[in-house]
Specification:
- 2 copies of one chain form a homodimer.
- Chain A has 199 residues and is mostly helical.
- The first copy, chain A, has one domain: Tetracycline Repressor, domain 2.
- Helices cover 77% and strands 0% of the residues of chain A.
- Chain A contains 9 helices and no strands.
- In chain A, helix 1 packs across helix 4 and helix 7 packs across helix 8.
- The N and C termini of chain A lie far apart (60 Å).
- The interface between A and B is large, with 46 and 46 residues.
């Protein structure tokens, strides 16, 4: 019984990881359940044992991605060995490195789905909004710490700065996917850290 | 003969406008040719008289949209009755107004397709890149004029500022679609005009 439920967990995780990889690259509408099944070797009949629908599958993919990504955010943004703005920069540099390693393709699963699905599925929109707002609040906390130590102007609204940071970052990644260069991300990082997040 | 070719032009324009409207809202993959035909009353057989493929249809939709949008950009960014930064602000305010009128849905056709299709179709990516770079250069020219009159720091690279402006704007619109509020666009405009585009 324990073994069986362990196997089920492994199968479900394999479907979520394949779905995450394919949906990140191809988007929601363009991802076929059959392609996900083929890439994992799971028989078709099993899919609806794990997921109610394609929409439910996407929700669970977002949650699965969020779990890993939130932990990465925590590692970067709560690294007390670095000053707050150094942590934000390290986060951007890691994102830039991944982008270049992927030849400026793929981008962020949550950003991609936000753009594609916010008007198509209220269920997906609400979940994406919840996840992005939680991530934004992590950036806001890091910016608040930068304000407390005097490296960012205290009179500014840290949540507003975080909103600007997050949406600008997603916009720069989107544009990098289209130019197939890191130039937009470099412009973002330069101006953000030299002109926006300053005392 | 002239009448017939005029009718063909009208039909083609109707298909492009319906395609533009539907693709802007639903994305490329999720737009069915049948839906476009149904909304225009054009028989199915005619579609391939006008367009080689769905991809070719999308390319022509982008060109059709670009023609109108480039003219709007010209009107806003070359309005000599306003100072250069006032023109950029007027552009953003018009964009914000349209966004709110659409209940923070839809966004920008070119931004949406960039996010969705840059990794899926090299033909579409190249066209989107060409269009976005041309638009960015218009912003860069307006920022250069602001530098010449002393309202933006002359030592900064105007193309880099324009890249930051454009990708940040698209990022803010994307996030507005997900939050269903204009808050991200307001944060963008405030910080852009109070901290980035300054002497």
């Amino acid at each position: 019984m324990a073994k069986q439920s362990g196997t089920k967990e492994v199968t479900k995780t394999a479907l979520l990881e394949a779905g995450c990889r394919i949906m990140r690259e191809k988007g929601y509408s363009n991802t076929g359940i059959q392609e996900v099944l083929d890439s994992t070797g799971v028989p078709k009949g099993s899919f609806y044992y794990y997921f109610d629908s394609k929409e439910d599958f996407a929700i669970q993919i977002i949650d699965h991605f969020d779990k890993t990504y939130s932990e990465q955010l925590r590692v970067y943004l709560e690294d007390k060995s670095l000053k707050p703005l150094e942590r934000l920069k390290a986060y951007c540099e890691e994102g830039r490195k991944n982008l270049v390693q992927n030849n400026c393709s793929k981008g962020c699963l949550v950003g991609n789905l936000s753009q594609e699905m916010s008007d198509q599925s209220e269920v997906l929109r609400a979940r994406l909004e919840e996840v992005l707002t939680r991530w934004r609040n992590r950036f806001a906390q890091c910016i608040k710490e930068a304000q407390q130590e005097g490296s960012v102007d205290k009179t500014q609204d840290n949540v507003e700065l975080a909103e600007f940071f997050q949406s600008g970052w997603h916009g720069a990644i989107m544009r990098a996917k289209t130019t197939k260069t890191a130039v937009p991300v470099d412009a973002f990082m330069k101006i953000m850290f030299e002109q926006v997040l300053v005392p």
